[in-house]
Amino acid sequence: MRTARNYLAKEIYRSSAVVLIALLGLFSFFTLIDELDSVNEFFPITALLSLELLAIPNRLYDLLPIGLLIGSILALAGLAQRNELVILRISGMSGMRILRMLWVITIPVIALAILLSEVIAPAAEIRYSEANLMMRGRVEGGRMVSGYWFKEPTLTGGTRIINVGKLLSSGDVAELKVYEFPDNTHMSSMWTAASGTFKDSKLLLKNVTENRFADTAHLSLIDGNPVEAPLMEVSRSPEVEINTTLTPGRLVSRILTPERMTWVMLSDYIDYLQRNKLDADRQIVAIWRKAAYPFTLLVMLTIAAPISYMQTRRGGVGAKIFIGILMGTGFFMLNQLALNVGLLYKWPPLVTALLPNILAMAIAMSTIFAMENRLKWSGRKLQSSIKANA
Q1: What are the residue boundaries of the structural domains of the chain, listed by start?
Q2: pTM for the full model?
Q3: Which of 152, 293, 303, 341 has the maximum number of C-beta atoms within 10 A of its C-beta?
């Protein structure tokens, strides 16, 4: 049993590694070709190559399920073509027992996926964002034309809205605007700052211009009557310190794709969004998808098992690999479709994250069960025919 499992693991790991290297090379090559137009004297080809190297861990995390599926099909189809799977079946192993062996083989891959998800990929994504910021002067994730927007409650029960124009690689921010709403309705002041630094739950604004509105400014604008006192006062200060729930980590969370964040970082950001009554559905779905990722790897091997048993006498390895690619692409598209449709129609996050996996697992298990019992059904049908002829 252990010898057979080790042999299967060796074949599957080797094939999956080759497939993943090929997929990584292919996707990196196409991305590199697509980005060549951005190369100039300020952004040389070496900078583009370094960005592509930083993108490899996240690309590996995305391609791991499909690579495992295609590699498993390649390995198991080869074993079936050499009649090695037939030998295992003759020795007394059922199809379900072989499937359980495949699930055990997935455990090291799951460990690798967790390491990628919680350590390597988030660190590489942060380094990628920092390098992109330094080399190109921009970051893409979660940014509007006007910058990044955050909302939080004040200590007096009001609302504060913070607009960050730029995120610096040092963790500081620049081009800030802070809007204060003491009664959650009317704006009392607006600060404009050249830069800001986070320290101990406080944001230190530097080179600040404050526009403070009179308490009756909104009433004067409604009535349209002239007033004697000015509606707004402008003052300047070298530094202003305000309390805030924002941290450099939460700023980084706004940049990163939710699936690229660690579990701890994602949970903290969800808590921040919910406490500030902001939409956290995308992040909640992401945390469930991270939890379902190991199950996705099990589903990939379960899908590979019945495909590998087909047409063992006539070969057809190329056809099986092609079917595996179609299955992997279809599963990826279904996963993305479920994410978008679930967010659009407000499905429960658990359903959005697990529905594609459950459907794929149900189809694969039904196929394995049908193939496992095909001989029994054929034997019963033959017996019935013999009795009918007699």
Answers
A1: 2-137+283-382, 148-255
A2: 0.76
A3: 303
